[in-house]
Design brief:
Radius of gyration: 25 Å
Largest sheet: 9 strands, mixed
CATH architecture of one domain: 3-Layer(aba) Sandwich
Distance between the termini: 68 Å
Number of helices: 15
Helix content: 25-40%
CATH superfamily of one domain: Periplasmic binding protein-like II
Structural class: alpha/beta
CATH topology of one domain: D-Maltodextrin-Binding Protein, domain 2
Length: 467
């Protein structure tokens, strides 16, 4: 009879063996280092100013995410003109944040994006406060930095008379202050390294676009993209998607651009479809239109204060009875079901009273319809900043249930690296949502209703979004 063979693992080797197993599974405790070995350093180029809040915010989040995997992140400040050659030549290991399709647009084939975003940025065309800006765009000189190709393309589509290229932000702002140009195209992250006096000396003349930034890694580190993305998702869920915010005030001459916000996935089909419909409606009335992403709570605040012009979706009850400064556009955007989601395929719930008291229920803060429905619940309610965070907390067991709208949730499911299947456990209600506009644009409402109605009739649908 053959003797049995045993593999004997010395006690001192167990920690490394366990670390190796965890590495294979990509499962890490949030703040526990993967091994006792010294952290390896990855150097990422970054066009943000090193003394800015957003620079330190992103650097801190990356290190919190990736230190447990055995990597330490350093940022290498680079001007927009120098950052791309540094990436092409492999002088750094990646970038702190660029467009998801940065590698293709800028011909940097050795770069690949992470699957989780790091920050969002809004690009403004700014003017000196008090400057007399001609309403005819064909008469305006506009400065921009050409190394941001997507921004350059958008500026080229906006109908300005003369576009002037600058190598650095400092040169461009100097030209704006000396009146050599009328407008300068800058990202809001540029504000974070400036004092309040500097910020208040400019106003937004137009919003060019809003974009989401993703960390980029050289493809020699391709094996890190998935584990890095998973860890960043965990840290984003723990800390929420909040980031340092700063903005230029809108100019009184900015009367031909309408800015709406939407609190749904900004690269999802619903966001895109509404943006196209609204752009058509406002263009037909002689207005430029931009749709930007804001969280639901921030959108409510910004819209009430008149910092933005409208919202893509709110319930009729909220617009007519809760909001004090918005008017309803009568063409419905969508009908959606408010569902209860869980990771248990066997749970069926008709109302929240059927849940045990100990169960935690998450919902997105700033969502009036959900909050109103849950207000009398005796369950443990947990506010989250957005749908993505709610789903991650459900997946990690920090929530037992998550309540939100079916189609809004579905659009996130293919984006998030969840470990567990999400099931619809019950339906609480069905709601109809409408776009709304700030009362300062009340004179536009009759024509706007007609334009949206024409779009709806052309689609042959009952709502603007097909569900």
């Amino acid at each position: 009879m053959a003797a049995e063979k045993h593999i004997i693992v010395p006690l001192f080797a167990l920690p490394k063996l366990i670390g190796l197993i965890l590495l294979c599974l990509h499962v890490y405790p949030p703040l526990v280092q993967a091994s006792s070995e010294p952290l390896k350093t990855l150097r990422l180029s970054c066009v943000l100013m090193p003394d800015s809040q957003i620079y330190n915010f992103i650097l801190g989040r990356y290190n919190r995410a990736w230190n447990p995997l055995g990597y330490r992140i350093e940022f290498v400040h680079a001007s927009p003109a120098n950052a791309i050659p540094m990436l092409r030549l492999g002088m750094v290991d990646g970038s702190c944040g660029r467009d998801r399709d940065f590698a293709k647009i800028h011909n940097v084939p050795n770069m690949a994006p992470l699957q989780q975003p790091s920050a969002t940025s809004t690009i403004h065309a700014i003017a000196l406060r008090g400057a007399n800006i001609d309403p005819d765009r064909q008469k305006l000189k506009v400065g921009y930095i050409p190394t941001f190709k997507r921004v350059s393309a958008k500026v080229g589509e906006m109908g300005y008379g003369e576009l002037i290229q600058f190598e650095t932000m400092k040169q461009m702002i100097g030209a704006l202050k000396s009146s050599a140009i009328d407008l300068a195209v800058v990202p809001d992250v540029f504000l974070h390294s400036r004092d309040q006096q500097f910020i208040e000396s400019f106003t937004t003349h137009a919003v060019v676009l809003t974009q989401t930034a993703y960390a980029q890694l050289d493809r020699k580190w391709h094996h890190l993209i998935k584990p890095f993305s998973r860890r960043l998702a965990v840290v984003n869920a723990e800390a929420g998607h909040s980031q340092p915010t700063a903005r230029f005030k809108r100019s009184s001459t900015d009367d031909k651009q309408i800015i709406f916000s939407c609190g749904i996935r900004p690269d999802g089909q619903s966001f895109i479809d509404f943006g196209k419909a609204a752009e058509t409606a406002f263009n037909n009335l002689g207005y430029d239109f931009k749709l930007i992403y804001l969280s639901r709570l921030r959108e409510r605040v910004e819209l009430e204060q008149g910092h933005i012009d409208g919202s893509c979706a709110r319930s009729a009850h909220y617009i007519e009875h809760i909001s004090t400064n918005t008017l309803m556009i009568k063409t419905p955007l969508a009908r959606d079901n408010m569902d209860i989601f869980s990771n248990d395929p066997d749970v069926r719930i008709n109302n929240l009273s059927e849940l045990p008291d100990a169960k935690t229920v998450g919902f997105v803060r700033g969502s009036y319809t959900v909050t109103h429905h849950l207000k009398n619940s005796r369950r443990q309610l947990v506010e989250v900043p957005d749908i993505a965070t709610g789903l991650r907390m459900l997946d990690s067991g920090k929530l037992d249930f998550f309540v939100d709208f079916k189609h809004a949730v579905i659009e996130y499911l293919d984006l998030l690296p969840l470990n567990n299947t999400v099931y619809t456990s019950g339906r609480l209600t069905t709601s109809l949502f409408y776009p709304s506009i700030h009362k300062k644009h009340a004179s536009l409402l009759p024509e706007l209703n007609r334009e949206f109605e024409k779009i709806l009739n052309a689609k042959g649908q009952q709502t603007l979004l097909k569900r």
